[in-house]
Amino acid sequence: MTDRPARPPLESALDTVREEYDFxxxxxxxxxxxxxxxxxxxxxxxxxxxxxxxxGCSASVWVYPTVAEGGRLHFxxxxxxxxxxxxxxxxxxxxxxRAPAQIVATDIDAELAPFELKAQLSSNRTQGIxxxxxxxxxxxxxYAHGGT
Length: 148
Known about the structure:
With 148 residues, this protein is mainly alpha-helical. Helices cover 48% and strands 9% of the residues. The chain has a two-stranded antiparallel ribbon with strand order 1-2. α2 crosses α3.
C-alpha cells in the first residue's frame, strides 16, 4: 500500500466568500453581498408571514426552517432590501443543511467576525443580525430537543 498525501479539507462556501470579501473594498463588498442575496433559494410569498418575520431589523427579513434529509435544517430566507438579503445569505452559509445540534454548537458570531460587518456597514444594516442569529439558534435548539 502506498502512502498518499493527505488531501486538504474541502473549503467551505463561507471560506470561499471570505477570501473574496477580504480581497475587495467598500462598494465591491456591497456588490458581493447583493450577489449573495440574489443567490438565495427563492422563498415563496406564502411563507413571508408575521410568524417568519425577524424582529428588530430595519428591513423586513423572513426566515423559515425546513427539515431536510437526515434531520438537517434547511432555511429559506428573504428580505425586501438587497444588502440585508446578502447579510442573511452570509449568516445562512454558517448553518445551512446542518444537523440542529451542529447549528447549536456553531458560534455564528465568530464565523462572521472576519467579515467585520459592523465596521463595513451602517448600524441600520447590522442591527438585525443578532436577531437573525438568535432566531436560527432558537429554531435549531427546538429541533435538537425533538420539537418542531
